[in-house]
Design goal:
The protein is of the alpha+beta class. About 30% of the residues lie in helices and about 30% in strands.
Length: about 325
Amino acid sequence: MAASDTFIEQIPPTFDLNAAAELGAKAEGVEIVLLDNAAKAIGLPDSIPVALRRGNSPGIEGLSNLFEAYRLYPARKAGQAVAQTFESFCALTFRHQTAHSAIFANMDWKKPTLTTVIDYHQLGQGHPDFGKHRVHYAFPLSEEWQKWVASDGKKMDQVDFAYFLEDRITELSSPTDEEKIQYERDFAVTIATPSQLVELSRGLQVNVESKVKASTTLQSGEGQIVWEESHSDGAGKPLKVPGIFMLNIAPFFMGDKVRIPVRLRYRPAGGKVIWYYEIYRPDQFITQHVRDMLAVARDTTALPAFEGTPEMSG
């Protein structure tokens, strides 16, 4: 007798296929199967392992949910490290960088920053990435620079301006020969030395109770203020006012000093003199410094560097 005939003879004549299917559905157990990405959705794997649960409550469950409680380390790097020095920024970037990492420089001169996006998008037609792992460095502005910027263009009376100059006298510098020629030619004014600004400061304090009698601009480019003494009818001693002076200051904490010209302004008003100053194009000097540091970071890490801000991470 053939083997197939034996198998047929063993099947009961009253065998119910529906009943057999029901019994199979009630069978307990979990089977690991692969679920195909038949739609070929971009950014997803071709297949994923799932748990096919059998029994009275059949269903499919992702394996990640089952294994997540036993995770030994994160699935990917994420978060933003904040470097407090430029050297640390470069070191952290070098430690984590990949072939697709990129550095961005925010060129806002009032709050410049550097940011490395470690998991940045792949080159060309490569895959996008999450952009959630970053290294950030905010250039720390020095206290001295912040004081100069805070009072830039601020109107001050004689007393306040005199004290301001005295308090900041160590941050001033005599002009070099080249600076004297350039700025006196460009601005048609006289450039001051620190000692001349000290003399101006003391002269303002002496004449604090006096009224302005005359204000003129001399042929040399200096301003001249003549005071009328409050206790007499005689004219006070004329005070010469330079039109520009030089700052020698480190805009960033523990950073290199830069030389920046500052224009000195005054306006007679109601017998008094209102003083203020204007830092000449501070954005140029700060931007150039940030651009130089960006070049150093690029050369140190061999990563592409861009002036701007990266996309927001999703």
